[in-house]
């Protein structure tokens, strides 16, 4: 049985549905701070299964320990955590407390239960600087002041220290680029909060006339059009990579491996807006907005390691991801038939 933390969140729910579609049993835990109960209903509707779900804060180790005692868990996929670079500047204590607290609690509960197979979802922002093709063995820029970046860097150090003290673990640490899109046929998608943190969801809100303008941070960066450039990957490519890594780990000895996971293509925010306009046939009104934190001009990654390790490659492009996410968003607003 596979435990998915943050199991009703964007990544957790997509991973869970994919695993169940392949015949695996899952148990989900989530505190609903960045998700909602209707996602559980959608998962159960699409699978026609009862899905064990426990509403809890993953940082509560004694309660999490009881989940391990109640269910025959042999693998953990850890997706729980805060993920907004900008918000972390305003809420640094929350980000350090939540992101590090969640990981340490998961590791404690796993260690006490003898479960030592983990997929941890990290971020390509962990490199802490601007760059086009970061490789897994590139050193982090540890002096960057953003709390989210520093928390992710420290989480990876925690994983390293745990493995060094006890090498009986199998740990796949995934440094994700910007994940976009929705599940095949829009069965599920990203829950849209009134003030979403995802750049694509903010743009789609304008397309759906849920907000008037898109606030464009930084237009004077060292890029071709002045806006920041990011790597975007379809969520279905992510869930496919997660599953392939789990299968690969069945034939491995103990390990701690870092993997970059993205499309290996950079897209600027202005280019993203243009693609959204093409897909949605809407005009995205923009307005310059003062940034509260330092912005990386480019965050690009080299994905050769994961391609060679599990024979994986991204199969869906950004236009498809935008189309899928737009279709799900319209369904959630009741603008098209379910």
TrEMBL record:
Reactions the enzyme catalyzes: UDP-alpha-D-glucose = UDP-alpha-D-galactose
Listed Pfam families: Epimerase
Pathway connected to this protein: Carbohydrate metabolism; galactose metabolism
InterPro entries: Epimerase_deHydtase, NAD(P)-bd_dom_sf
Residues annotated as domain NAD-dependent epimerase/dehydratase: 2-252
EC number: 5.1.3.2
SUPFAM superfamilies: NAD(P)-binding Rossmann-fold domains
Name assigned to this protein: UDP-glucose 4-epimerase
Organism: Acinetobacter qingfengensis
